[in-house]
Amino acid sequence: MKDTLIPSSIIKYSMENALEIIFLFEKSGQITIFNKTARQDLQYEKEPVFIYDIFPNSFQAIEDGFESALAFGNDIKQLMAYRKNKTCFPVQARLLELETEPISYLCMASNTSEQTLMEKHMNQASKEAKEAQQVKSEFIANVTHELRTPVNGILGNIRELIQIEDDTTKKRLLHLVEHGCQDMNAIINSILDFSKLEAGKFTLEPRQFHFRNMIDYVRNNHMPKITEKGLDFFVTVSPDLPKYIIGDELRIVQILNNLLSNACKFTSVGKINLEVVKTGQINNRIELFFIVIDTGIGIKKADIDKLFKSFSQVDASITRKYGGTGLGLNICKQLVELMDGTIQVDSERGKGSMFSFHIWVEVPNEEVQNTTVVSDAPTVLNKIKSFAQESNHTIWTYGTPENLEEIHKKMSKLILSMEMDNWEKAEMFAETIKQLTADAPIEIKSTILRLKMAVQKEDYNKAFAAFEVLKENYQQQD
Fold it and tell me: Which of 19, 108, 158, 447 registers the highest number of CB atoms within 10 A of its CB?
């Protein structure tokens, strides 16, 4: 097959109308052909022009032509091109030596002024953004510090007043203020952590600590709140975990505290489980897998993606009813990722939630076993998930043994709260009993409604009367 030759007229036309600067120059350095773009950008017309006029920083005139340290070839070079009026602009250029007789050279260059200007603007914008981020971080750090001081001052005085106050009504109001101060401190800490993580200034502080002591601390910290709501709390730690590990104990506790606090907050009946297993080991690093399961309100599948976003709640009613900033899980996610792990959730509306995360930590030299274990986290998670699904949720079906057992627990907590004149807790238990009897006969539901209204009005006699009716019905069902 014969080679197809492109007519020289087409080549000349393409070169003349190209968007790039194109020109030919001879061994003497004189430019013989300028295309349209070159004439416009360099502002030369018919007068003699030499390559060292265009690129004076890269080409120099010598007796028989020019010299340059640049290598001719397809490599792109960053050069400064000078116009006739001696102003200049940046270009990306290719310099080619043509196989012609006599020898001639081709230059193809693109004006990068706009690109360079854009890069300068981007660099300036990036610099300004970093400075703004630094100012914001410093501002948040200063504000949170200034807020924490008066809040802790109020909290300390409130606790002293609680100890010396005998009036029940005043004491209840003081407890509300105390609770508000504690919530404020938690919000301040969350905002400060989030700011550090966002600014990339958050660093882990790994050290050696007793792992089971840490788990005991977490369990003891949450046990009163969980059992106070009439919930069961189970903590299981795999026996093959080492006694000591090296990691950031404070941040692991922070993650567990957040997950368990949420589980307690959103669970009114049933139980909360915390399980820890070892799912992998590579030399002196082990993978720890944590699972928190609750039988709470659960989350719609469509809303799960919102959980780990900043300042996000599943819906507005969550914030109104349960409080929170929407930062906790986002902070947990970032902390877990700093520990080379991931966090995930499996949940269904009305059927509880299961949060799980894995992290990598180190083992002290004296406890290292020279072995490599492939991560088995998915298998562990599937087994626990299957168990959780099997154990849920006949609690909500009125009349089942599980349902009646929960009603009995909540009725006992209700009457105890009423006897102690703690109407806030009594109202919480009354609401839970109402949920547990949602599909009960109409007469039971009516009694529950009377009970709840009496509790809201702090009317002990009417509340107790309704309680007795429910108790009698419960005993008949049982």
Answer: 447
Provide the β-strand partners of residue 444: none
Q: What angle do CA 353, 236, 305 make, to 5 degrees?
A: 25
Looking at the structure, tell me whether residues 230 and 322 fall in a common domain: yes
Local structure of residue 50 (DSSP, 8 states): B
Q: HSE of 103 in the Cβ direction (CA atoms, 13 Å)?
A: 6
SS3 246: strand
Instruction: Please tell me the distance from the alpha carbon of residue 77 to that of residue 230, in angstroms, as a whole number.
Output: 75
- Is residue 66 within 8 A of residue 52, CB to CB? The reply is yes
Which residues are registered as beta bridge partners of 25?
31, 105
Number of H helices, E strands in the chain: 14, 15
> Higher model confidence: residue 26 or residue 129?
26
Q: Are 464 and 455 in contact (CB under 8 A)?
A: no
Question: What is the sign of the dihedral through the CA atoms of 55, 61, 65 and 70?
Answer: negative
From 252, 221, 228, select the one nearest 361 (Cα to Cα).
252
DSSP 8-state secondary structure symbol assigned to residue 278: E
Q: Is residue 391 part of a domain?
A: no
* Locus of tokens 């106070």: 228
DSSP lists the bridge partners of residue 186 as: none
Residues in the chain, how many? 478
In the numeric block, which tokens belong to residue 101?
């007789």
Measured between alpha carbons, how far apart are the two ends of the chain, in Å? 98
Asked if residue 296 lies in contact with residue 268, where contact means CB atoms within 8 angstroms, the answer is yes
Residue with tokens 């401190």: 185
Instruction: List the beta bridge partners of residue 91.
Output: 79, 111
Domain-located, residue 383: no
* Mean pLDDT estimate for the chain: 82
Let me know: does 404 contact 474? Beta carbons within 8 Å. yes
Q: What is the CATH number of the domain that holds 159?
A: 1.10.287.130
Is pLDDT above 70 for 193? yes
Residue 372, in any domain of the structure: yes
- Beta-carbon contacts of residue 197 (< 8 Å; ≥ 6 apart): 331, 334, 335
Q: Which residue among 54, 77, 111 closes a domain?
A: 111
Query: Could you tell me if 211 and 238 are in contact, meaning their C-beta atoms sit under 8 angstroms apart?
Result: no
Say yes or no to pLDDT of 464 above 70. Answer: yes
Range of the structural domain that residue 269 is part of: 207-376
Could you tell me if 150 and 297 lie in one domain?
Answer: no
Give residue 381's pLDDT: 60
Quick check: is 268 in a domain?
A: yes
Is the CB of residue 80 less than 8 Å from the CB of residue 71? no
